[in-house]
Write a structure and sequence with these properties.
This protein is an all-alpha fold. The chain is built from three helices and no strands. The protein has a single domain, classed as Helix Hairpins, CATH 1.10.287.3510.
């Protein structure tokens, strides 16, 4: 049995759906952040699959830029989460409804 483009896209859609459910349903900032990263990786998988099956490198180049941006996003996002945790002693979004000190 050959693994075709549709198989990669199904896995990508499943990963994206799991990440989306993590973002929508969970209230912990770290879990929400992991869901966002899972969604980015699902998009990367779809880009690489399309690139592979069209015999171009366009998707792979795009993935390189997405991974670069995601790495800088992780550094900034985790720094913000750590700063919030130090200030409020919680990572639950329900406890972080006010921006006042």
């Amino acid at each position: 049995m050959m693994i075709g483009l549709e198989h990669y896209l199904i896995v990508s859609a499943l990963l994206f759906s799991i990440g989306l459910m993590g973002v929508i349903l969970r209230r912990n900032l770290i879990v929400i952040y992991m869901g966002l990263e899972l969604m980015l990786n699902a998009a990367n998988l779809a880009l690489v699959a399309f690139s592979r099956f069209t015999n171009t490198v366009d998707g792979q180049v795009m993935v390189f830029f997405v991974i670069t941006v995601a790495a800088s996003e992780v550094a900034v996002g985790l720094a913000l989460i750590v700063a919030l945790y130090r200030r409020r002693q919680t990572t639950e979004t329900d406890d972080l409804t006010s921006l006042k000190l």
